[in-house]
Structures
1.
Amino acid sequence: MISKHEAATVQGFLEDTSNLKHGWTPGVFFPESEEEVAHLLRSAAAEGRRFTVAGNGTGTTGGRIPFGDHVIAMHRLNRIEEVLPVGDGTAVIRAQAGAELQEVQSRAAAAGWFYPPDPTEKSCFIGSTVANNSSGSRSYRYGATRRHIRSIRVALPQGDIVDFARGGHMADAEGRFSLDLPIAGHLSFQRPDYGMPATSKHNAGYFSAPGMDLVDLFIGSEGTLGVILEAELQLRPAPAKVFACLSWFMDEDELFSFIDRARTGGSGVAPRAIELFDRRSLDFLRQSYPAIPQGTAGAVYIEEESTGEAEDDCLEAWMSLMDACGSPSDLSWAAIDAEGMTRLREFRHQLPVLVNEWLSRQAETKVSTDMAVPDAQARELYELYRDACQSEGFTFIIFGHIGNAHLHLNILPRDREEFDRAKKLYRKLVSRVLAMGGTLSAEHGIGKLKSEYLVQMYGERGIGEMVRVKKAIDPYLVLNIGNLIPASFYESET
């Protein structure tokens, strides 16, 4: 098995997009087969090793950064199999954990199929998207990764390699799972005993629901219960046409009226994505896009799938809705072909680039949120963020997945004093969002950066439920310690 200990190689595994610092590792293993992963896990307890599983470094929460543990890098397990139609109007494609999402999507598209999950960083690994239940803008229509997984292949912490297919292992009436494994022996445990928030996106803590599938416990568990080796992904027929549009609004009431009517579909529209840019986001974007109309209170980006025959009706329905909600349709930016879609998506992705350029000239990093609330409270979340930041005098932007009541607030401190105040405000915002029935993380997960806040969401009892499940599957605490569950909770039974 390939392993590296040189500082130059190791350094790359002490970074992701979280800006979490001071990680360290004795070395990085690059398994080239599933059996090599299993061998590392089987020998871990006897050799006194713990492991952090590393994807491609696109995460935002420090999940792949080790603090003294060895690293298992999944890069060499990157095989992608052929697309296989399954006879029910769908198809499947199997991909190993180290396969990049963009390559899977390209393979699917070349065969006339479509894999809906669309996290911003297309170079992320498939195993990471499963472990983190990744989503993106299209989750408004299609949901997160969980909805598109037919089966997974997992290396469990004691070294068993197990295939879990949907429907194969369901929680019984008491919420209990039972497994008989060659190495670990008989495992029996109950699902976590807590409820899920009533949000349309949620990615914080172990999934739990009556009668749940064991597959769903591993999806979103952030590598704490096993190493995802391979996944069977469900594909849909590729849409014949996709239409996108960026609409400008001079008034916030009109903007949110448009969003509400687009979400209900009562105006003859059926979006697959609804994204918001607030006024301050547009101010940043004018650096690269001076044609953005002046005086805008915000903008909404939408996508809808259509057919060649229905495309004109689709366009007309959106134009009518814009006019009805006060957005001048003649000023909107629309895309009806691949080139236009690429330009509008580049517009969306330019915002974080410009923010990072601004931050590079400051002394501090941003303070950002990934929270969501029940759909009906989307505007309340927006106003909470806006009013709180204005009262503090911060430079900030609000943008993101308004269709799912999931908005990203980026506070952009100019010095240490502002950074400290922004962190205090973040804690207050967490409390407010949780009181609204929201979730701490809608898509980016918890990792190491947000584990302390997960205690605030679930309480010590809820974290104790996660520890109970973790110890049932990983009794020697081999995998991803510090991710999701604060490490201090492992010190005693709770």
2.
Amino acid sequence: MAWTKEMPANPVVAVVGATGAVGKEFLEVLHDLDFPASQVKALASARSAGKTLEFKGCGQVAPGQLTVEEMTPASFEGVDIALCSAGASVSKEIRDAIVSAGAIMIDNSSAFRMDEDVPLVVPEVNPQDLSWHSGVIANPNCSTIQMVVALKPLYDLSHIKRVVVSTYQAASGAGAAAMDELYSQTRQFLNGEELTVDAFAHQIAFNCIPHIDKFLDDASTKEEWKMVVETKKIMGDDAIKVAATCVRVPVLRCHGEAVNVEFDSDISVEEAREALAKAPGVTLMDDVDQNVYPMPGLLAGTNDTYVGRLRKDPSVDHGLAFWVVADQIRKGAALNAVQIAQLLLPA
């Protein structure tokens, strides 16, 4: 049953998991987009209750400090939008409390992404799917988001048959502790010290790890499975074939992806470049004569999905290849969620 409650022009926003990397970025993005909130509540676990977080303000909320409150079912009374990034298990526990309170849950975890009654939304790609939400909207996996933002303008030129993607995923995708570990291991490595390995299966400093999330029965990882099934759901096309290899690399915030796409009919590089240049949320950085292309180390803190190295893929008929970079914490998580919230506001 589709949601019918009217969204106020100045909603009350709760940030769930406010002390985590994505939670803190939610607060940054609410400020940067000047989201018209009347109140912002910072919620987290009992051990974080009482901490203060700097908030630059947005809407009707003045700059200052937010005091973190312990999240309980009662926390959502009077809340209109809950931006959640506290992990799948927590999301499943609090879903009923949020929806029963009359709030819309925009969830950044994997808990509900493939549920038939939950839209999986990237605003530049499938905003129309918001029309059938029933109180819960899922934020896709970070690596999927940036890929489909780049695929959509090309899909509009010709149906996509097959996508092969290799990801170069930043430490931020594994959370704040993983980013800290990249820093600490780098210092340890350069000082000739023994490396402390905790957040990943192996050292991340000066290394690449072809293992993100758990391995499945077919020897792929769950991260790779997410890219397959989420792409089909977001694009609304179960016929698209997707093959993914996901790799963790020693980069802090931005994911890179090498993408090869096979279309039903031919698309010239010039047509693709024109479509990408006009696409919402896409910045084309593609001038190889001047060594211009997106690089993860230089794009941290940005909002767009950056595309470069656009060229023909001669290994298939009607093929194109390109390189995509986006900030995993922003477009891959917090920004996408707040953009969804913007779409929920009254016109």
3.
Amino acid sequence: MSRAISYIMILIGAVVAIYAQADEQQNQFILIGGIVILMLGIYRVSRHIPSKRDQNDDTDETAG
């Protein structure tokens, strides 16, 4: 459920940011809001991805 909300936030943020850019008289607040929602969604998704450094540290200790 949480991951689905993150993907929805990414989609909504991207659509809002593109919509704000497409208008001739773009509203800066709508653009900033869309980017903030997009970045929050990306942050929520990236929290669940393990670090590459953590994976490499485990393999280096067992090899030496």
4.
Amino acid sequence: MQVKTQVEDLQNYLTDASNMPGGHAERLLVPETADEVAAVLREANEAGASVTISGARTGTVGGAVPFGGYVISLERLNKIKSIDRDAKSATVEPGVVLADLQKAVEAEGLYYPPDPTEWSCQIGGTVATNASGARSFKYGATREFVSALTVVLADGDVLRLRRGEVFANEGVVDLVTESGRSISAQVPTYKRPNVRKNVSGYFNETPLDAIDLFIGSEGTLGVITEIELRLVPKPEGFFSGVVFFEKHGDLLGFVDEVKAASSGNAHADTLSSEDRGNALTDVRASARVRASASLVEYFDDRALSFIREKFPETPEAMAGAVYFEQETTAETEDALFEAWNEMLERHFADIDRSWFTTTDADREKLRAFRHALPVAVNERVVRNKQKKIGTDMAVPDENFPGFLKYQKEMLDASGIDYVIFGHIGDCHLHANLLPKTDEEATRSRHIYGRFVAQTIMLGGCVSAEHGIGKLKSKYLYVAMGERYLNEMAELKKAFDPKGILGRGNMFDAKFV
């Protein structure tokens, strides 16, 4: 195990993709085994030293930024331990890079659907944040694919959790560690918003599987050292398209029809293991007769202007675009093309200038189109010498059109540069404000606050996929209030009595 204390050695571990300033730590530890992780945690716990877990540091909310204490980097716990084709599962260490896992399982004829935008992220980080992405429209977030976890607790003890084995009983989860110690934890009682995606606070539902407490817990309950993931059969093919619309109302009407057509298939792979085979068969059978998207992504007119810098063939004078994808077989490909074409004609899409493909090479070009936007936005941010301010909120389906209209009207009136893009199928878009001056930066933060307030009023969540981390803890406080943050703190104390893990993540350390 490497141990580093020199400032120059720690520098790269003091920030993440949020660029949150002020990070500092006493030492960096890079263990190579779960036993070494446990040893570090025992030492830190005895000393009362805070511990921040570091992965690829691709998070955008400051969760991996330390403010004192130890940093534990899991980069060397990076083995794909096994891929079982028959069981459709993979067992990995937390430092495995997502792109490497996806390549490895696809080589075995299998498929790992979670698709966060940043492919260089590590699997441990995706579990700790319950990461999602474009394919969540059909498949759900990372949670739906985690079958088992090994978690090292703050005192070095170990929990082994398998889905379906331990559930909360009357709001209490009772667990036994590897050493035989019993832990009893009260599940928070807040009601989760009725949204398609939500990573705002500890997970709760009825019945609650104990494993789900740790998925999305942002490094505050324990350190994940091994993950068993559920896989699905690799799709035979894909039909993909980037479709342009001259009128925004036509675009929204198209999305509504896509969602309605796809509703029977959405999250089909989140069923119990004994039903999954039948569910997948049903999905493929239904695909023979109707369009059913696995992802539905949105770009507003300003986003298209940004993308045009990288893709000059992007047509001008468009109100927006939708990027969709559907899984196909050789038997269904032609029929599905006709089904999508009919739907697009009903909603007056500019079919002649839109782009469609069924080949892997051209599909990668469409994916590059989608990923060109964040790159172009970041380049503009560098030129402006200001930080972008990006939203990550989701609202219930019935409130989405009004919320999007509210956002665009407020942003247009502000005079601040912005783009809106993201997961419209899940009623979850990212509005990126791009201030050019300090004054615009101040107004951008105020606008963000207004969006948070509107989201809460509409029954939405303050973070749909990026998590809370340190940067959004004040918004979680606004959304939940002191009572429910205290309930979250009590849950944390059950697993981490001294409050050493992930201090400041999700809620202020004063609650612990």
